[in-house]
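Chapter summary example.
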Amino acid sequence: MRAPVELFLASSNRGKLREFRALAKTSQSPLISIEIALLPDFDTLPAFEESAPTFAENAAGKALHYSRLREDLVLADDSGLVVPALGGAPGVHSARYAGADAPNSQRIEKLLAEMGEKTGEARAAHFMCAIALARNGRALAVVTDRVDGELLESPRGTGGFGYDPVFYFLALKKTFSELTAAEKNQHSHRGKAFRKLLAALSSML
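The structure predicted for these 205 residues follows.
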């Protein structure tokens, strides 16, 4: 195997870094090894405003923006929950659904209030993830994937983050908060998108 390929995550979120590192560890290809680190001095760099209407545009824009500031392979992602019965909300505003600094509990509370007494197919939802890779202001890959489920009426489980406690994954009959780390990496939108990215990157080298 050749020397590991180092990717720099356009984020200061160490929780997201741990998740990507776990994905890299469990998704390694015999042709390529990946190492992921946070982009150095991320918080001191000019910020990118994630204002595009789609996850893919936000991920690509972020990767391109930060790749112009560093001589590295830059990885960026955008993800969120999509509820068709709410017109696609929270969508790209998932992290800011109840305000920029609102905790997960408030976002879930607002979501469940918006769902009201909807039942059956009206409670269908899916998580979307877009991941982009860029270098020197040039996009090398943009991939997306999703996982389907439905929204419960109240939270269940203690793991995960965001909307995981109310996102019920039918295939395993658990919320995302009840999944083990291995189960989540295998089935999650981010895990599926990351494996697509790894395949794309393998074909470039």
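To summarize the output: Residues 189-204 form the longest helix (16 residues).
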